[in-house]
Specification:
Layout lengths: L9 H12 L9 H5 L28 H20 L4 H5 L3 E4 L13 E4 L4 E4 L10 H14 L3 H13 L15 H4 L2 H17 L4
Parallel strand pairs: 1-3
Antiparallel strand pairs: 2-3
């Protein structure tokens, strides 16, 4: 991948980190307001009663290793959010994981994972567990956080990215997107940034 089009580009990561670390300031929804979201909780906690995070059915069967991987990604995401001054439980509460058995969700090429906000479900296909240290799970959690913050994360990320890369003809400026989809979709680019931010700072794999 061309370095200036990858989120490993230092400026892109620094911009995103600046946004995340500014969340306790009035850049984005104050923490006290985010806490109110906990009323939507289904009783989940990020540290206990992990079974409540998983949908179990005849079409949503989980291997132990898959559940452990999901748990690790949620724990790392929670730590990252808490360290930035968020209430991670309030931001993530209510969402559950559904297992889709097949390479891609609904058989659509490239759809490795999907979040359905109306049902508060994150759907994971086989491929989500095979690549990049849970990157696709972190990505979908990024969508959850962005949704819970009323897309403020996307708005501020792109506002600062555009200051760094003026004159771009794409929705997401050059050097701030990871794939063609994110190039023309700022919410996808933000979820990619969120995933890499957590992975590079809160996991041992990279």
């Amino acid at each position: 991948m061309n370095q200036n089009r990858s989120f490993t580009h230092g400026i892109a990561l620094l911009v995103f980190a600046a946004i995340i670390l500014g969340l306790a300031a009035p850049l984005i929804t104050p923490v006290d307001e985010v806490k109110a979201l906990s009323t939507e909780s289904t009783g989940q906690e990020t540290g206990t009663e992990w079974e409540s995070w998983f949908i179990h059915s005849e079409t949503s069967l989980w291997a132990v290793a898959e559940m452990e991987m999901v748990r690790e990604t949620v724990e790392n995401t929670s730590s990252a959010l808490d360290d930035a001054g968020f209430n991670s439980q309030a931001l993530l509460a209510g969402y559950r994981f559904r297992r889709y058995h097949g390479q891609f969700v609904d058989g659509i090429d490239g759809r490795i994972a999907l979040v359905r906000h109306a049902k508060k479900e994150i759907i994971l296909a086989d491929t989500a567990f095979m690549r990049l240290w849970g990157y696709y799970i972190y990505h979908e959690l990024g969508h959850v956080v962005d949704k819970r913050l009323d897309r403020e994360l996307s708005r501020h990320f792109h506002a600062l990215a555009n200051k760094e890369a003026t004159g771009s003809s794409t929705v997401t400026p050059e050097g701030f997107w990871l794939n063609e989809h994110a190039r023309m979709d700022r919410e996808e680019a933000t979820a990619d940034a969120f995933a890499l931010w957590v992975i590079l700072r809160y996991t041992e794999n990279p």
